[in-house]
Amino acid sequence: MMSKTSLTRDLVLAASLMSALAATPAFAESKQEKCFGVALKGTNDCAAGAGTTCAGTSAIDYQGNSWKFVPKGTCTTMQLPGGRMGSLSALDRDRPKS
Length: 98
Known about the structure:
Blueprint lengths: L3 H19 L2 H7 E5 L9 E2 L18 E6 L27
Antiparallel strand pairs: 1-3, 2-3
C-alpha cells in the first residue's frame, strides 16, 4: 500500500512529465511546421547549418538556413521584404558572411 507521501510524489512527477511532453518540439510540430528563411536576427527556433547553432542564434534577418515554427500550411505563402518567401527546406540565400 502506498503512503500519502509516495502518492503525492508520484502525482507531482506524473504532472511534471505531462507538462514537459506538452512543451516538446514533437507536440509543437503537430500543429506547426519548420519554416526556413522567415526569422528575424536572433529569433530563430533552431538551426540548419553553418552560421547558426540553435534557438536565437541567427546572425541576420531572414537567414536561409535557420528556421522558425509557424502554423502548419502557412510557410510557403509567407511574403517577406525583398520578394523573399518562406521555405520548408533550408535556403542558400541570406547567409552570414564568413
